[in-house]
Specification:
By secondary structure, the chain is of the alpha+beta class. The chain has seven helices and seven strands.
C-alpha cells in the first residue's frame, strides 16, 4: 500500500472529529434490579420459655401422653374444693328469742337534764353540734327494758329503727355517770363483741344491775344448777372438754 493511499484513509476516518477534543465512549449496558425485601422484627408478647413449654405440651398431647401435673396421682389425696360463695354456718346462724308475754320494767326517753345542759351550752358555736344531737335524742329516741330484753328505738322522719337485745346475749355492761350522777351513758357488749350504746340514760346504775340479774337468771345452767361460765363470758364450749380463753369483767 502506498503512502498516499494510507494518508487518504486516515484523513477520511478522522474527518468527523475535531482536533484537540476529548471523547468518551459509553457502553450501553442494561441492569435487572429486584425489589428490596423488608424485614419486620416483631417481639413476642409471651416469654420464649413459656412458648416453648406450650409447644412441648402440644406435642405430648398429640402423642397421647398426659401432661405433667395432670395425672391421677397429682389429684390424689386432695379434698374436694368447696364453693366460694358457701356462707359460714357460725356467722349465718343467729339465735331467735321469744319475747311474748314480757313485762316492762322501765321505759322512757333520755334524761331531760342532758337536753337542758346542752341547750344552755348551745350558745357557743363549739358546743352547737352536741346541742343538736341532744335535741334529736330527746325528740326521737326511746329506751325500753323488760324482763326478757332491752330495746332502743328511733322514730325520726329520716330514720326509723329498733334494736332488740336479749339478756342471754349480754356479755358485759359498762356505765359512765353524767350530770353529777343524775344520768349516765351505758355500753352493752354482746357475745359477738358488738356494742349497743344508750346515751343520757336515767337510773343507769339500777338498770345495769337489772340487766346483769336478768342475764344470770336466763342463762343456761349446768347439771349442778350453776351457771355455765362459757355462756356468761360469751364463749362457746369446745368439744372434747377443752376450754377457751376467758376474760374477766371490766
Amino acid at each position: 500500500m502506498s503512502a498516499n493511499s494510507l494518508g487518504l484513509g486516515l484523513s477520511s476516518a478522522t474527518s468527523g472529529y475535531r482536533a484537540g477534543a476529548t471523547y468518551r465512549l459509553k457502553a450501553s449496558t442494561s441492569f435487572t434490579t429486584k425489589p428490596a425485601r423488608r424485614f419486620v422484627v416483631r417481639a413476642s408478647a409471651e416469654d420464649p420459655d413459656a412458648e416453648l413449654e406450650k409447644r412441648l405440651e402440644k406435642l405430648r398431647l398429640a402423642k397421647g401422653a398426659t401432661p405433667y401435673g395432670q395425672g391421677a396421682k397429682a389429684t390424689e389425696g386432695k379434698p374436694p374444693s368447696k364453693p366460694a360463695d358457701a356462707p359460714k354456718k357460725a356467722a349465718a346462724e343467729k339465735k331467735e328469742y321469744d319475747f311474748t308475754g314480757e313485762t316492762v320494767y322501765y321505759q322512757g326517753p333520755p334524761h331531760r337534764g342532758d337536753l337542758a345542759v346542752n341547750l344552755a351550752l348551745g350558745a357557743t358555736l363549739l358546743w352547737l353540734p352536741l346541742t343538736i344531737a341532744a335535741v334529736g335524742r330527746a325528740a326521737f329516741v326511746n329506751y325500753k327494758f323488760t324482763d326478757k330484753r332491752l330495746s332502743v328505738s328511733t322514730n325520726a322522719p329520716w330514720k326509723t329503727e329498733q334494736t332488740d337485745v336479749a339478756y342471754q346475749e349480754v356479755k358485759e355492761v359498762v356505765t359512765v355517770g353524767r350530770g353529777v350522777g343524775l344520768w349516765g351513758d351505758m355500753v352493752v357488749t354482746l357475745r359477738d363483741n358488738s356494742k349497743v350504746e344508750l346515751r343520757s340514760l336515767d337510773k343507769f346504775v339500777e338498770l345495769k344491775d337489772y340487766i346483769l340479774a336478768r342475764r344470770d337468771a336466763l342463762a343456761p345452767k349446768g347439771d349442778d344448777g350453776m351457771l355455765d361460765a362459757a355462756t356468761l363470758m360469751g364463749e362457746e364450749a369446745v368439744a372434747g372438754g377443752k376450754k377457751g380463753s376467758k376474760k374477766g369483767f371490766a
